[in-house]
Amino acid sequence: MSRILFITSNRLGDAVLSTGLLGHLTDAHPGARLTVACGPLPAPLFRSVPGLERLIPLAKRSYARHWLRLWLECVGTRWDLVVDLRNSAVGRLVPARRRAFHAKAARPMHKVEENAAVLGLSPPPAPRLWIDREARRQADALIPAGTGPFLAIGPTANWLGKEWPAERFARLALRLTGEGGPLAGARVAVLAAGPERDRAQPVLAALGPRAIDLTGRTDPMAAAACLERAALYVGNDSGLMHIAAAAGVPTVGLFGPGYPAIYGPWGPRGRVVVSSVPQPELLARVTADPNARGLMDGVDEDRVDETATALLSETHRTCDQFASGSSTPAELPPLR
Fold first, then answer.
1. Which of 95, 119, 143 corresponds to the end of one domain?
2. Could you tell me the superkingdom of the organism this chain comes from (predicted)?
3. Per-residue pLDDT tens over the stretch 309-335
4. Domain containing 26: what range?
5. Can you tell me the distance from the alpha carbon of 299 to that of 275, in angstroms, rounded to the nearest whole number?
């Protein structure tokens, strides 16, 4: 029985974007025993991967001692394949029949494509999630019984410079779910990581009883189980955005100084709205002042509303056609 070591990111978004490559490995090597090494934050997303033998959450330690720990845990196994997306020394120093490493792309490409290039895969396999029964049980407990199709929003990010103003998120949610909106009468699930919870409070306060407060209440796997039930997700460039897209939810990602061509939501149900301020200007402002404010002010509220409404219309129509057997969701054009 073959053994595969898969070393992926400590960051949530990058780890999600690597799941397509991992999914390919589970399909191409049925029965293989997998060991996945990743950061502690994304680790829950990998706990139900088919064939998982070990999951190693790799918390950073001073003097790179986390890499020494990983080497000590893996050097005693002779691996049939090592896939190292961190391009680390560990991937080179453990015994293995075959090794594949991430390399910086020669041309700009989406991170999913860059990961697929590690094994020469074309087309690139899309990110996927292995949502388990426990995560769905948590979602049942967190989302009120009887809640119909709902809007999910992610008003925070791991960097303040990527956050669209909270008041705009609140107004957008009320427009989409208010009278005449495409999700009229729907509840609004607000998601944020624990350390970012305070920054989501203005949105929760503005939404009042319409809000479903999921801030700081889920790990990534439970968040995925909640998000897969949403009719639409709108959020900043963040790991939650990638989880929503991987769960198949129509997803609108908001970008200011980020890189939508590399980190936009992957797949036919993903759309991006970028700032009206040119990216080079935004990056220059960051260089001049790493704590610069207002980097997302150029993301127009009306345009986000129009993009979300159009995406909802397209995906609902496609789902109806798919149910009748006349087409498939894959026929939706991706934003590339």
1. 119
2. Bacteria
3. 999 999 876 544 434 433 333 333 333
4. 3-119
5. 4
State the residue for tokens 């009719």.
Answer: 231
Pair 196, 267 in one domain: yes
108-129 per-residue burial string, b: 16 or more CB within 10 A, e: under 16? eebbbbbbbbbeeeeebbbbbb
Residue 255 lies in a domain: yes
Euclidean distance between CA atoms 92 and 173, whole angstroms: 49
DSSP letter at 79 equals: B
Q: Is 37 helix (H, G, I), strand (E, B) or coil?
A: strand
Residue 300, C-beta contacts closer than 8 angstroms, at least 6 positions apart: 273, 276
Spatial separation of the C-alpha atoms in residues 233 and 160, rounded to whole Å: 20
* 209 and 158 in a common domain: yes
Q: Which of 119, 147, 181 is the last residue of a domain?
A: 119
What is the torsional sign of CA 106, 111, 113, 117? positive
Q: How far is CA 316 from CA 149, 169, 240, 310, 322, in A?
A: 12, 23, 22, 10, 10
